[in-house]
Structures are given as C-alpha cells and as structure tokens.
Amino acid sequence: MALRERFSTWPPVVLDGALGTELERRGVRSDLPLWSTWALLEVPEAVESIHREYLRAGAEVITANTFRTQRRTLARADVPGLEARAAALVELAVSLARRAIADASRPTWIAGSAPPLEDCYRPDLAPPSAEAWREHCEHAANLLRAGVDVIAVETHNTIAEASLAARAAAQTGLPFWVSFVCAGGPRLISGDPLSRALDAVRDAGPLAVGVNCLSPAEATACVPTLARSGLPFCVYANADRANADRANAEPANADPAADEYVAHARRWLDAGARMIGGCCGTGPDHVRALVNEITK
Questions:
Q1: In angstroms, rounded to a whole number, what is the distance separating the alpha carbons of residues 1 and 213?
Q2: Nearest C-alpha neighbor of 256 from the set 206, 202, 211, 219
Q3: How confident is the model at residue 240 (pLDDT cuts 50, 70, 90)?
Q4: Disulfide check for 93: which of 33, 65, 85, 186 has CB 3.0–4.6 Å away?
Q5: Could you say which architecture CATH assigns to the domain 3-115+122-295?
Q6: Which of 75-79, 174-178, 208-212 shows the lowest mean pLDDT across its residues?
Q7: What is the pLDDT of residue 208?
C-alpha cells in the first residue's frame, strides 16, 4: 500500500516520536551544530534501537535521522571533511531506519526530515533564496537516492524557505508533507499567519500540511486553521519545549504525561487530523498511548 493510499483510509496514520531528545535522554552526545547527527558518527546502533522501539509502540512512519545532515550544518562542525559526507550520512540514516523496519509485520514507511537550513526557532537566520533553493534541492536529492518513502518538510518557520523546501521535495516525485512551527496562536515564529503559509505551499502538492515542535496547547490552537485549509493535516507536538532555550524563550509545557498529551491529540483527531505523532520530548510511551487512543 502506498502512503498516499493509506492517508485516505481509517484510522489516521501514526507517526513516531522524537529522535533527537530521545538520544539526549540516553546520554548520546547532542551538542550543536550537529545535534542528532553525532549519533550517526558515534553510536548509530542507538538510532536503530530507537526506531525499533517506535515500531513496537505502533508507529507506521519512522523518521530517519536526517534532521541535521545538510551540507551547511556539517560545514559548521569541527570535524575535518564532514561537509563532503552529507550524502553518505543521509544514506546511513536511512539505512538504519530501513534495517529497523525490515521485519515489520504491517506496512511501514520511512520519512526523510528536511528542516530549515538554520535554527528552527530563528527565522531571522534563514539564508537568501538562491542559497536555500540550491541546498534544499541537494538535500531532497540525497533523500531520494537514499530511498526514503516520503519527505517531511518540517519545523519550518518562514513562508519563503518552506515554499522552496516544498518545491525541492516535489521535484523528486516523492510524496511529502509540510509542517510549520508556530507560537502565540496560528502564526509562524516569523509572525506570518499560518493560513498564508498553508496557501503558499498548496500548489506544490503536499500529501499533508501541519504543525510540529510546539507545545500541545499551541498545536491545538492551530488546528482550526489547519482544518479550514481543506488539505489533509498532521500534528506532532512537543511533550515540552525542550529546545526553546535555543530561541531564548521560556519552556511552554513541562513534560506532560503521555495521557495528557493524548487528551490534546483527541482534539486534533476530532478536528480531522490524518496523521499524529510526537516531536521533542515525546517517546515510545507517547506513541503507544496515541495508538491505544486511535484503536480503542
């Protein structure tokens, strides 16, 4: 079954939870700029293990560890020659996910993450359009060659860069979704209305649009706008604002229990969400609780 076909059936698709913060929780080196990419360099088996735990929890989409494997990020790291290994690291990340799902007893898909080229909480750092287009095309091509099933254009904070990343994903021929990070209601961190952002990526033909990497309450505030878009939508929020310090912001939610997270997710499902999962701070327990909620 193709993922696009799965999106049209009931129940909604269950995405996995966080990878970066789950690696941090397990003591894996995660300092910037590489963050979760350190695990590919030092303990790739930890990445595969987390993927397997999400599968056991019931996730249908496993997101490969490609969140910080773009050439721009690798060039900033104090690791000689790392910039030239962008394609190889994407291939490694996808192969770890592919190994994890090899024995899955149900249809399972691998998403390749395609986030902003700079900090997800700093729209002011977004690169010029020509640079962004070139680099998002390179990353999308790396994901295609590595064999992902779908591209997650995720955690975007500006309309301009999200539109370019969506176009880059579209030209691979793979399905893709586009998800934004918002704050203070249905507005991107850049201040742009979420409704305008959704309209801007519509013509690229996304499988879905959504929000991620925001508190559950903030996500819930965005759901009416997502529902009004007329597009299939997804939500995968944080269990807390684990990375909010990178935006010089105060945490918005302090690690609610999985059942509290699911209480918000029920509102997303009631509004018509076609895919739900978790972002920073969530783990296998959150995914298991989501699956139980959907299938009860």
A1: 29
A2: 219
A3: low
A4: 65
A5: Alpha-Beta Barrel (3.20)
A6: 75-79
A7: 97
- Tokens for 240? 């807390």
Boundaries of every domain in the chain: 3-115+122-295
Contact (Cβ atoms closer than 8 angstroms) between residue 79 and residue 128: no
Instruction: Tally Cβ neighbours within 10 Å of residue 49.
Output: 14
Whole-number Å distance between alpha carbons of 89 and 253: 33
Q: Return the minimum-mean-pLDDT range out of 47-56, 219-228, 255-264.
A: 255-264
User: pLDDT at residue 242 above 60?
Assistant: no
In whole angstroms, give the CA distance from residue 229 to residue 70.
30
Residue 249, pLDDT score? 34
Q: Report how far residue 11's alpha carbon sits from residue 233's, in angstroms, rounded to the nearest whole number.
A: 14
Q: What is the mean pLDDT of residues 264-272?
A: 96
| Mode of pairing for the β-strands spanning 109-113 and 61-64 | parallel
Neighbours of 120 (CB within 10 A): 21
Over the chain, what HEC string results? CCHHHHHCCCCCEEECCCCHHHHHHCCCCCCCCCCCHHHHHHCHHHHHHHHHHHHHHCCCEEEECCCCCCHHHHHHCCCCCHHHHHHHHHHHHHHHHHHHHCCCCCCCEEEEECCCCCCCCCHHHCCCHHHHHHHHHHHHHHHHHHCCCEEEEEEECCHHHHHHHHHHHHCCCCCEEEEECECCCCEECCCCEHHHHHHHHHCCCCCEEEEECCCHHHHHHHHHHHHHCCCCEEEEECCCCCCHHHHCCCCCCCCCCHHHHHHHHHHHHHCCCCEEEECCCCCHHHHHHHHHHHHC
C-alpha 189/C-alpha 204 separation (Å) is: 22
